[in-house]
Structure formats: C-alpha cells, structure tokens
Amino acid sequence: MKRRGRGKKENGLIIEYRELGTISIDELCQAVITDIKALKDIYGISYVKSAKLRLPVTNEYGEHRDVYHPAGRKMLRMDTHHFRPSCKDYEL
Fold first, then answer.
1. Is 50 left (phi over 0), alpha (psi -120 to 50) or beta?
2. Do 35 and 42 contact (CB within 8 A), yes or no?
3. How far apart are CA 35 and CA 29, in angstroms?
4. Would the N or C end of the chain have less CB density within 10 A of its end CB?
5. Could you tell me which residues come within 8 angstroms of residue 14 by beta carbon, excluding any fewer than 6 positions away?
6. pTM for this predicted structure
7. How far, in Å, CA of 12 to CA of 48, rounded?
8. 48-82, pLDDT tens digit by residue?
C-alpha cells in the first residue's frame, strides 16, 4: 500500500465501488454486506481493527452534498452507532 500522511503506512484492504457510479444508500449497503461476506467466506478473514468507511455523499445526480447533524452543525466524521460491550475485548 502507498504511504499516507506523516510517514504512516496504510495497512489493510481497499474495496472500490467507483464502477457502480452514483447509487442509493440501500444499494451500497447491499454491496458492502456482499463484499464483507465474500471476505469471510472466500478469503478467510475473521477479524478487522479500526476499520473506516469513507462515503462521498451526493444527491441523485452525483453532485456533492454536505451532511448536517440534527443540531444544525456540519458533519465531517461520525462514530459508529453499533454497540459492542467492552467486556467482549477481554475474553478469558
């Protein structure tokens, strides 16, 4: 992988969705689920750490669209809404 930022080497795998063009969020969800299942079933990947998903948000015509929090401020980053008890990290 190429180097990014301050000498940090980027590790991992990039899945490209560029060829799909402008798609609905529901179709993207199905594509991501399909690809993650393939990583598990075909490539034997069981765990990931500090995963990121970058979404270039657009309208139906492919024009850039800003994302706003319900409180009114512009959002650039969102923490996951998925809940996982921290006790799962400390299996004995």
1. left
2. no
3. 10
4. C
5. 1
6. 0.74
7. 9
8. 988 999 999 999 999 999 999 999 999 999 988 88
Q: Tens of pLDDT along 12-53?
A: 899 999 999 999 999 999 999 999 999 999 999 999 988 999
Which tokens belong to 84?
Answer: 């996982």
**Which sequence spans correspond to the domains of the chain?**
3-90
Unique residue bearing structure tokens 């669209």:
65
Write out the DSSP string of 5-56: TTTEEP-S-----GGG-S--HHHHHHHHHHHHHHHHHTT-----SS------
